[in-house]
Amino acid sequence: MTTPVLFLDDASRHLGHIDRARAEQTAITLITTLRRLRRINRRIALNTSQPIAQHQITDDWTMQAVLGGNSFKEEWDFVRALSDRSPFSAELQEGISQEIDDMEFRTRLGQIPSRALAWATLLDSATVSFNAHPDWSKAWVETAYYTLEDDGSVAEGEGCIKNASLASHADEHIEWLKQLGFAEVPTAAQVWGEKSERFPNLRFLARTEKDLSALEGSGAPFLQAMASLESLEKDAGGWKKDSPWPEFSTKTTGESEQRQKLCWVYDDATGKEELFDWHTRFTGGLAGRVHFRVDTVNRVIVVAYVGSKLTRKISG
């Protein structure tokens, strides 16, 4: 089991000036929402873009300014402990920054930028927000995003992210929340030992065993790498007999000509170096890649590398 994490930043704060009473009500509504989330799933943690005390409710008020003192000691202790439970270390925050920096997420209607939306998207999670802005006062936040591709181009898209700014929003996501974080995570040794059963339509170069071992224990990156391999397995298994190439269900791209030199790896099955420039992405704390080639003769996908974005040639 892993610790499920929801994400909060101050993108949903009030714009302009409000009085203390309204700021206090906004903070209490957030805490009521968080309490409901914890009642549904007691494993949930909160990740914030800065220490929770410094979060701006509006230009005039921070969380600490509103909830400080003995009057709200219980509420303050609760929200601070929930934030302290987040499993993301400073190193992990830094590790994912490259992926986050290569993308921009905004609310679709008001075009409010938010890194919390990016985190929730990358980790297939959800956001928690203040009930203070129309874009965020719903159980789903409509998003527009822009991502920088490996070839320097910019891709655009739209989506929806689960959100809770009221306790009732948590109830709308209740079945998803109940299951969050309770999936059993296999070990790298189990995955490798069972690869023929788990991935009958994939072939792995021997070197990938150490890739999986290196990812084991990383939490979200390992889980997302497994999800990427499962998607490739499904795509290879569904390869149509009359088609020369499988249909990919997730985004797959080839490396640019300049970066292809990093992707040549010796394949024991063919007795020569092969080009593994095709890749799919995974995230969860790093800019992850699964590098592979499509064996059109044997109609399998051959995996050569599972790890962070290549900065040097794949080792043998």
Query: For the residues shown, what is the average pLDDT?
Result: 89
Q: What distance separates the N and C termini?
A: 33 Å
Q: Major sheet: size, sense and barrel closure?
A: 5 strands, mixed
DSSP strand tally? 13
Low-confidence segments, ≥5 residues, pLDDT <50?
none
The main sheet orders its strands as 7-13-12-11-8
Defining traits:
single chain; 316 residues; alpha/beta; four-stranded mixed beta sheet; 13 strands
Give a quick precis of the structure.
With 316 residues, the chain is of the alpha/beta class. It has eleven helices and 13 strands. The two termini are 33 Å apart.
What is the strand and helix layout of this fold?
Blueprint: E1 5-8, H1 20-40, E2 45-48, H2 63-67, H3 73-84, H4 90-101, E3 103-107, H5 115-122, E4 127-128, E5 140-148, E6 154-164, H6 167-172, H7 174-179, H8 188-193, H9 195-198, E7 202-204, H10 208-215, H11 220-237, E8 252-254, E9 264-267, E10 272-275, E11 278-282, E12 288-295, E13 300-308
Parallel strand pairs: 1-2, 4-6, 7-13
Antiparallel strand pairs: 3-5, 5-6, 8-11, 9-10, 11-12, 12-13
Description:
The protein is of the alpha/beta class and 316 residues long. The strands form four sheets. It has a five-stranded mixed beta sheet. Strands 3-5-6-4 form a four-stranded mixed beta sheet. The model has no long low-confidence stretch (mean pLDDT 89). It has helices spanning 20-40, 63-67, 73-84, 90-101, 115-122, 167-172, 174-179, 188-193, 195-198, 208-215, 220-237; strands at residues 5-8, 45-48, 103-107, 127-128, 140-148, 154-164, 202-204, 252-254, 264-267, 272-275, 278-282, 288-295, 300-308. The chain folds into two domains: 5-179, no CATH class; 188-308, no CATH class.
